[in-house]
Amino acid sequence: MDPRITNPAGLLPDAVKAVNLLYRAGHSAGVPDTVLELVHLRASQINGCAPCVDAGARAMRKTGETDDRMFTVAVWRETPYFTEPERAALALAEAATRMADTPDAVPDAVWADAAKHFTEEQLAAIVLWIATTNFFNRINVTTRQQAPQTWA
């Protein structure tokens, strides 16, 4: 499958500025990078965004993430590899990504569990990061962006 257009953000320079601001904001609240990478990877898997899944796995590898965790994000509930805060963030990422799948898009129980592990500012950053990931997923899937062909 060929991309429909080249990188849309590259075609619109103001978009790059906005994306950089979102990135900085999402990483400014003290949420561990591993949590942000996990929610990015999980939302990207759900949305079928090949370049984001690829980029997420590469980023996780750079932070020293283990293969056990990288390869089992899609089945995080059935593995022992994730901490309670990470599980809460993953549940929030799934709920916020699958909003159309249920009338109660982000159930109170999911939010309450995340709130047990993260401050209000950290929750804001996680929600922003999930939304930013979904933003990229929708652009990449719509324009059929491809993952790189080789791993460095």
Question: Which key phrases capture this entry?
Answer:
152 residues, mainly alpha, AhpD-like, globular
Helix content: 55-70%
Shape: globular
Mean of pLDDT: 91
How much of the sequence is in beta strands?
under 5%
Write down the secondary-structure element order. Answer: HHHHHHHH
Biggest pleated-sheet summary: none
Name the CATH class.
Mainly Alpha
Whole-Å distance between the termini?
A: 23 Å
CATH topology: AhpD-like
User: How many helices does DSSP assign?
Assistant: 8
Radius of gyration: 15 Å
Tally of domains: 1
Query: What name goes with the CATH superfamily?
Result: AhpD-like
Q: Could you say which structural class the secondary elements and strand pairing correspond to?
A: mainly alpha
The low-confidence parts are none
Would you count the extended β strands for me? 0
CATH architecture: Up-down Bundle
Walkthrough of the structure:
The protein contains 8 helices and no strands. It is an all-alpha fold. It has a single domain, classed as AhpD-like (Up-down Bundle), CATH 1.20.1290. The longest helix is centred in the last third of the chain and has 23 residues, at 120-142. The chain is globular and about 40 Å long. The mean pLDDT is 91.
